[in-house]
Write a structure and sequence with these properties.
heterodimer; A: mainly alpha; ABC transporter involved in vitamin B12 uptake, BtuC; Arc Repressor Mutant, subunit A; 21 helices; 3 strands; 2% strand; elongated; B: mainly alpha; two-stranded antiparallel sheet; 17 helices; 4% strand
Chain lengths: 503, 442
């Protein structure tokens, strides 16, 4: 539903962009603001330039964002599993005052205030202060983590905005570039920046590979990690330190508001494709790399699309795709599995109903009679809470599987295969009933419902175990039902389709 | 020195009024966000209204307020819905699903705004940190008064929020603290939830163009969190949060005018300074709150540990005296046995001397008469407990010392008598030491 909504929104707006762009291209202003841009349709040589990485600048940018996506995907996996997804958000907002202060200090010492390492150092310091504040609030007061995140995020960011207001009045050095940290500005990336991102990102990945086992343990079973003597606090700090580093190197590319998405979205998408953390990390790295690559490539092709936003939207598209189509945890596959289970359950109920009907009339001893006796559908209808339309569907499906044969609309009989299957099902049902009565002390009158809940998912090994456990009383063949079964006569018109048995 | 000489009642007055109105209306709802542990939802919704604004502009092709307002509110509500859907259908952790939704919507909004840019004065910078300073410039006439449009809008929002909170206080309270119980008592917690979300979105949208996202987020969380530190009652928390929000708004604006001047600059962003002021208020509340403040909790814990140390010292001296009436321990000896650090021990010994419980003779200490009485009671408590633990709790004699050591500090005379009655009369504890009598027979 939401996928459709987003896709629809996207699709409906896409043509607009080009129309708007075509009209407004002549009026592009030179002012430095991300609002003053529009889209133009790129020509073939633009595509070629980006795809074959002909442009040195494009090469740098794409390399940088790809590495960023990889390291964010990897670190983000741990952060996500540790349920620290939103901490990255608070953290990235908390870097703003550090950036502003670093700029002020650097300029007042006569240095170049806009040099990336200085600004990022400031960002790192205030990011760490932000994390410290979160931990202090969470551990020393009665407030919960969410409130701590909200407080740190808004207060630090507010301080950053106030400081930026001051920075803009400084006579030395105009500070227009600082705001690009809020929304990100990939295009301004130069080779040394890409190297910085690359080396810091790779270092983070290396550290987390070295600490893989420890971090995994931290994410899944902190208590066990403590009991095994792992330095849990230190590991936690390391993980958060890694998040800080990745966030900071991402500031320039995607901006501090959207940085959290690179930490959250690829791992969350990867989660739909696997149940194992190693695979999840690998998939998250790949998805992160792809979103960095495709996103920055798109913003290079359409020069006026904000790169940070494009990277995020590519990641979001992957997330939506994974959520819907992911195997084994996506929505579709889960729906499908549930549907198949429902079909199986219905089929088994139908067969068991037929079997019990025949059994009650003593028609089972002779195979011929069992297979030639027709059972009226109206009787079956009363055995379970089926609607006539649903029962018809179930019967049709069973017919297709050659388990039953329908004479007319309202009479069916079991086939040979159907009888075999029904025998097995009834046997398993009763085995489980017997087990519940003998070992779980469930009352005989209630046992049928309880067995219903589980009989459809019994594995063959469990059946074998039950068989040996319950020492076959009736040596061979199908077990007798441990409780009375009441099946209505064909002509009886009782109006309680749901209650098929009573004891 | 300050910027106050340029104070203009018309301009600054309206700015402060707008700030106060926004702060109170957000803080009112924020109480419930904090209590429901959804503080970050305010952040998410305020970011995610961006595509709503852009879409509304593209559809209506105008910059009139109503379509943009509606569009943004819808986007805000969708954020809450999407978050819930991704959480339940996709089985994604709530924080992560929120992160996915609002960043995606924000990114979408940025891209859409780029398309709309040349027509519309929709600066994402303005969305983020607002233009409260421009409040007084956009006015409308109401009954002959020139009132800033924003003030009118925010007043209406404040009124709506106030009515909602007052009329649904009971429902909000119940559904915040115990949603399951709320559902069983017959009203739908989901409806309350989404009504709250809708109002959060409306408030955020109404506030964003004046004070910007960031102040909205701050006011949603910070004043309620500070109020939560100060009180245990919901009604007083709501009232306090409104008061704190007001103070933050006023001091924030004053700070924005005055503080930069100290360093030789002009004024700075009012919204940013309001957030900072709120943060400072929270810091004060967290530190100095009368019951839950960090300082008071720390002091309480410290006093308790000193009290326990003092009691341990006199109980130890009693035991020493019991064994060898002539031995007078010095500070170092006591420290060795109690594993206590020098400074607290010295301090406690001085305190005990002052209280007349012990007396110092040439660096050695002995119990006074009152001290001996107090110590005897402690030792009696300790040994009675040991006795009781062995007899009634079925613990073995080796394990009970530590338990009794803790319990002895919280045992009064009444409890001792009860313990004495409940245990089989004996003069010895399980280790064979005598249980001293309650009052010494002279």
């Amino acid at each position: 539903m939401r996928a459709f909504a987003l896709v629809f929104l996207f699709a409906s707006l896409w043509p607009n962009c080009f129309v708007l762009g075509a009209i407004d291209r002549s009026e592009i202003q030179t002012q430095q603001s991300i609002t003053d841009r529009s889209i133009s349709i790129p020509e073939w040589k633009d595509w070629k330039r980006v795809f074959f990485l002909e442009d040195y600048n494009t090469r740098i940018v794409i390399l940088g964002t790809t590495l960023l996506g990889m390291s964010a995907g990897m670190i983000g996996s741990f952060a996500l599993l540790r349920k620290r997804a939103l901490m990255g958000d608070a953290l990235s907002h908390a870097t703003l005052p550090g950036i502003a202060i670093a700029f002020i200090i650097a300029t007042s010492f006569g240095l170049n205030g806009k040099s990336l390492p200085i600004l990022l150092a400031g960002a790192a310091v205030s990011g760490l202060l932000g994390i410290a504040a979160i931990l202090l609030i969470r551990n020393l007061t009665r407030l919960k983590e969410d409130a701590a995140l909200g407080i740190v995020l808004s207060v630090f960011f507010g301080a950053g905005i106030a400081l930026l207001g001051i920075v803009q009045q400084m006579r030395t050095g105009h500070a227009a570039g600082l705001e690009s940290f809020i929304y990100g500005k990939t295009a301004s990336m130069v080779a040394s920046d890409a190297w910085l991102i690359g080396s810091a990102g790779l270092t983070c990945m290396l550290i987390s590979i070295l600490l893989y086992k420890e971090l995994t343990l931290l994410c899944f079973d902190e208590g066990f990690a403590i009991s095994r003597g792992f330095p849990v606090v230190l590991l936690d700090m390391t993980l958060m330190g890694l998040v800080v580093v990745v966030t900071i190197i991402g500031l320039q590319a995607v901006g501090l508001i959207l940085m959290i998405s690179l930490l959250v979205i690829p791992p969350a998408a990867a989660r739909f494709w696997t149940e194992k953390i190693v695979n999840m990390t690998v998939v998250a790295i790949i998805l992160g790399a792809l979103s960095g690559m495709i996103g920055s490539a798109m913003s290079a092709i359409f020069p006026n699309l904000p790169s940070g936003a494009m990277i995020v939207l590519v990641a979001t598209a992957m997330f939506l795709f994974s959520m819907v189509f992911g195997i084994p945890r996506g929505i579709l596959i889960r729906k499908l599995r549930r549907h198949q289970l429902n079909l199986k359950v219905n089929r088994q109920h139908l067969l068991r109903g037929l079997y019990e009907f025949l059994e009650a009339r003593g028609l089972l001893n002779e195979k011929q009679t069992a297979e030639s006796t027709f059972v009226p559908i109206s009787t079956l209808l009363q055995m379970r809470s089926w609607s006539p339309a649903k029962l018809k569907k179930i019967v049709k499906r069973a017919q297709r599987e050659h388990l039953v044969v329908a004479l007319q609309e309202d009479q069916i009989r079991l086939t040979k295969a159907g009888l075999l299957e029904a025998t097995r099902i009834v046997h398993e049902h009763r085995l489980w009933e017997l087990y519940l009565i003998t070992y779980a002390d469930v009352a005989a009158s209630k046992v049928d419902q309880d067995a219903d809940a589980i009989e459809h998912v019994l594995e063959p090994e469990v059946i074998a175990e039950l068989e040996t456990l319950l020492v076959r009383q009736s040596t061979q063949g199908v077990l007798q039902s441990p409780h009375a079964i009441e099946i209505q006569q064909e002509n009886a018109n009782r109006s309680q389709p749901g209650s098929r048995r009573s004891t | 020195m300050s910027g106050l000489e340029q104070w203009n009642w018309f301009l600054d007055g309206w700015i402060i009024v707008a700030g106060i109105l926004c702060a109170i209306s957000t803080a009112l709802l924020g109480n419930f966000l904090v209590l429901r542990k959804m503080s970050m939802l305010g952040d998410a919704i305020t970011h995610a209204i961006l595509p709503g604004l852009a879409a509304a502009f593209m559809i209506s092709d105008s910059r009139s307020s109503l379509p943009m307002f509606v569009g943004a509110v819808i986007a805000g509500i969708l954020t809450a819905l999407f978050t819930e859907w991704i959480r339940s259908f996709g089985k994604v952790d709530e924080g992560a699903s929120m992160g996915v939704v609002f960043t995606s919507l924000f990114a979408l909004g940025l891209v859409m705004i780029v398309q709309a840019a040349d027509h519309v004065d929709l600066d994402p910078g303005c969305v983020l940190y607002g233009a409260i300073e421009l409040t007084p410039l956009d006015t409308i006439l109401i009954t002959g008064w020139e009132i800033p449009r924003v003030v009118v809008v925010l007043s209406v929002v404040l009124l709506i929020n106030l009515v909602f909170v007052i009329f649904f206080l009971k429902e909000l309270k119940l559904s915040s603290f115990d949603p399951a119980l709320a559902s069983t008592t017959g009203f739908n917690a989901t409806i309350i939830h989404y009504t709250l979300m809708t109002l959060v979105a409306i408030t955020a949208v109404a506030s964003f163009e004046t004070v910007g996202n960031i102040l909205v987020v701050a006011m949603f969380v910070v004043p309620p969190a500070a109020a939560y530190m100060l009180t245990d009652r919901l009604v007083s928390m709501i009232v306090l949060s409104a008061i704190l929000a007001t103070i933050a708004a006023v001091t924030g604006h004053l700070g924005a005018i005055t503080v930069p001047r100290w360093f030789g600059y002009h004024s700075t962003s009012t919204a940013g300074m309001m957030a900072v002021a709120a943060g400072l208020l929270f810091g004060l509340a967290a530190l100095f709150a009368p019951r839950h403040g960090i300082v008071i909790v720390f002091v309480r814990r410290q006093l308790l540990s000193w009290k326990i140390l003092a009691e341990d010292i006199i109980a130890l001296m009693y035991r020493i005296e019991e064994r060898d009436p002539l031995q007078k321990p010095d500070a170092a000896y006591l420290r060795d046995i109690l594993f206590s650090r020098p400074f607290p021990t010295t301090l406690t010994l001085r305190y005990l001397t002052k209280q007349g419980l012990i007396a110092e003779i040439n660096g050695n200490y002995e119990l006074t008469e009152t001290g001996r009485d107090r110590a005897r009671q402690l030792v009696r408590s300790h040994r009675l407990w040991e006795h009781y633990l062995v007899e009634h709790a079925g613990m073995s004699a080796e394990n009970i010392h530590k338990q009794a050591e803790q319990l002895e500090h919280f045992t009064d005379r009444q409890l001792r008598e009860k313990l004495n009655e409940d245990t089989i009369d004996t003069d010895q504890d399980p280790h064979g030491s005598p249980i001293p009598p309650e009052d010494e027979v002279r």
